[in-house]
Amino acid sequence: MKKKLLIFLFGMFSVCTIFAQETIVKGSVKDAVTDEPLPDVTITVEETGQSETTDGMGQFKFSQAIPFGEQMLRITKTGFLPKRYPIIVNEGKTVDIQDMTLEVDQGSQADLFTITLSDDELSDDTSGSDNISGLLSSSRDIFQRTAAFEFSSSFFRVRGLDSDNGTVLINGIKMNKFDTGRPQWSNWGGLNDVVRNQEFSQGLSPSAYTFGGVLGATNMNTKASSYREGGRVTYSSSNRSYTNRLMASYSSGLMEDGWAYTLMAGRRWGNEGYQDASLYDSNSFFASVEKKINDKHSINFTSIYAPNRRGKSSSNTQEVYDLKGIKYNEYWGYLDGKKKNSRIKEVEEPIIMLNHTWDISSKTALNTNIGYQFGKIGNSRLDYAGGANPSPAYYQDLPSNYLEDGDLAGAYAAEQEFLNDGQVDWERIIDANLTNNTMGTNAAYVLYEDRNDDKTLTLNSIFNTELNENVLFHAGINYRKLDSENFAEIIDLLGSTTGVSNIDSFSQNAFDANNPDYIAYEGDKFRYNYNINVNELSGFAQAQFKYNKVDFYLAGSLTKTDYQREGLFKNGNNLDNSYGKGDKLEFTGVGAKAGFTYKITGKHLLDFNGGYITKAPSIRNTYTNSRESHDYVGVRFGNKEAGIDITEEKIMSVDASYIFRSPIIKAKLTGFYTKIEDANEISFYFTQGSSTGFIQEILTGVEKRHIGGELGIEAQVTPTIKLKGAASVGQYTYDNNPNLYINSTSEDFVDVQDGEQINLVDDVTTSNLEGYKVAGGPQTAYSVGFEYRDPDYWWFGATANFFDNAYVDVSPLSRSSAFYTDADGLPYNDYDPDVAKGLLSQEKFDNYMVVNLVGGKSWKIGDKYIGFFASVGNLLDKQYKTGGYEQGRRADYRALRDDISLEKRVFGAKYWYGRGANYFVNVYLRF
């Protein structure tokens, strides 16, 4: 017995000795200037290729055994000079290398990334490029960088998903809009020097600040002490979105008294970018002030004010492009010898925030934040209730309209008129109003603005702690409140002195039945006027575990959201359902995700992620037409009794990756699958066929499937030459036949019974969309390129990018029973299924290749740096379509058949083209 006890005690001692003698290599990395922890730094063992990355607190720990003896660590991060650290690994010992430092690479080409993308490609928040905006230079993944810098101009969407599936934060405060779910990147446009401190979590991977979405999360850190001391002045010129840009910034660094500040101002301007009359006028101001009270507490105040005005450009039919070229823009015309654009987007939404950081211990921190954003977003356009459509590309004025009637002379005259002019006739518009003045009638034309005046308050606390060497825990609670005023406001009466009548030209009902004789003048609200109030309370918790062979994480979230509309006009088309407060709509969103990384060796890893998310639909996809009524999706049909109901959107997503990392080659191959259910899509347009008028097209219960693969690879073949490649191959399709119904106040769709408007299209039908491709950029994209970086601080790079499988956005109405049903409700007697199949086939765009060049040089003069770089996009001046949509104006069989059979279609699809050859040049001084 005693012998057995001795053996047992010896065994226990041996086990304890083994655990006690575990070999550990860990440490931390900081900015050499600011002394701030650096996240996303890659630490590589040069001999074996094993690598780890620092977390949000700059810490790292190798989870696999490193060979004993002398080893060399290489630490790298984009925008910083790499360093090598020698270490000695002894059995059973801990190697703890705290506070290694990296210095900013003063000649880094990363400046190009943080300057050109956010200013140029992200100027239009409705474009496809906003889907990859959060990546910028914060991502260390070659595929993500390629998607951001090479694919964005082609409306490419990562995994085919819209940007509302990603979360953007500033100092932990969520910046996604309730209206669309997307971030409004122009709110901080032109402030590139101060939004470069970013932490990016890709896909479902964990974030220390938020639960995020299936496209990940980006947090921009604007704490004043996080910027290196010094200043920078930059001048740029381009023919993309603007022609000139001037920026200046200065950071004090953390001073001895515990204060730090960072200031920046910038201006971007130009009469037009690549498209005609696409003016750009933007000013940007930034201030961040921080007080480090003691070793545990600091307070930071940030203010951002970036007002901007941008002239929009039109989508056009192929007939129009053939006549006027891809730079043509129908929205402008000459007035007093200058180009005047009728469609101006103006954004003026200042942001202020106060952030408190409490370092409870070296391993635990609590960040408490309050943010407030207010201001306006305006989109101007012409109203022509008393006159003819002023669009120079209006279908009745194009040659195709005359050719349809066999009028060759009329077609030739229309062609010549369009070729020689083809722009908005401002003088004719003003003359029509002057004529109406003499007759005592109201304005035929006015220029007005669709306005959203939002006030958003955000309060949150984010808790982070390292429970032990293996476990990190993150949690947060967040409250957001939105008060949104929505109205149309007259900004120019265009010569009229008699104002404009507030009457719906389609139904002839008053837009405000409480004031039916209302005449609106400049600065007055008209057409619609309502408020939307939103409350959102959310929380998340997340645990990360790191071990020798496996890292894994678990996270969950809960979100309560409510919307309520308050009508300030009593719309004449919806007398009983537009004024006062409507129903309060409540949604409960839940999220759960998990993932793990299995380390086969230091070079070979497998990574898996999966998640299920439900979320409230955006405001835009909740109300069928919030400008006219309280109606929301499904409300007119008794909700569930008709088989449709407003509910949360549901997303299920999984991905799996193989990762290879060595000192020379880094590669990642990923397969992904995402299923979206119960989504809503609402569109507004005119239709022309068996029924004619302005309609709201409501799709409910939409399901989509996104499946595909991604590859990113780069090879440092010599100390100066790097080869790189990326590919995305996907198939993004509608996965069911969703519910469809139409809402309209136009005469063909309504009847009057007992003095009340009765909608004649209340019947819920289905749209046969299953199998059709989801529009939104190319579903196949490849890129190959190289970079040469000379030790003498000049560099050059080139890429060739190939795109395919991009499709036009199809009309749901023409894929419904409305396509084959006559006005009497019976099927067309001449309906041919084979012909119909051809008519309803989805248009696929031609594939194309785009070649881009970039290069630069920097010089050190004393303690200052001067840099220059330039990029040329689409070097070969390739013309290509980036997107488009079918017009629903002729959505029935006979009308569509006859239109397609014409020599020139009257209502062909409308397209966007990418830019031809373009450039961007930049010079800067750092001091």
Number of strands: 46
Low-pLDDT stretches are 5-21, 108-139, 751-760
| Assembly type | single chain
Helix share bin: 10-25%
**How is the main sheet built?**
26 strands, antiparallel
> For the CA atoms, what is the radius of gyration?
30 Å
Count of helical regions: 9
User: Approximately how much beta-strand content do the residues carry?
Assistant: over 45%
Mean pLDDT: 88
The outline comes out as globular
Structural class per helix/strand content? Answer: mainly beta
- How far the N terminus sits from the C terminus, by CA atoms, comes to 79 Å
Write the layout of secondary structure elements.
Elements (H helix, E strand, L loop, with lengths): L1 H19 L3 E8 L10 E4 L5 E3 L5 E3 L7 E8 L6 E7 L4 E9 L7 H12 L20 H8 L17 E4 L2 E2 L23 E5 L13 E5 L9 E9 L5 E8 L7 E12 L9 E13 L4 E9 L2 E4 L4 E2 H7 L7 E4 L2 E4 L2 E5 L2 E11 L2 E20 L15 H6 L3 H13 L5 H14 L6 E21 L4 E22 L7 E2 L17 E2 L4 E22 L3 E18 L12 E20 L4 E12 L33 E13 L3 E23 L5 E24 L4 E14 L4 E6 L5 E4 L2 E4 L5 E2 L13 E10 L4 E11 L28 H7 L8 E14 L2 E10 L7 E5 L7 H8 L9 E4 L4 E9 L1
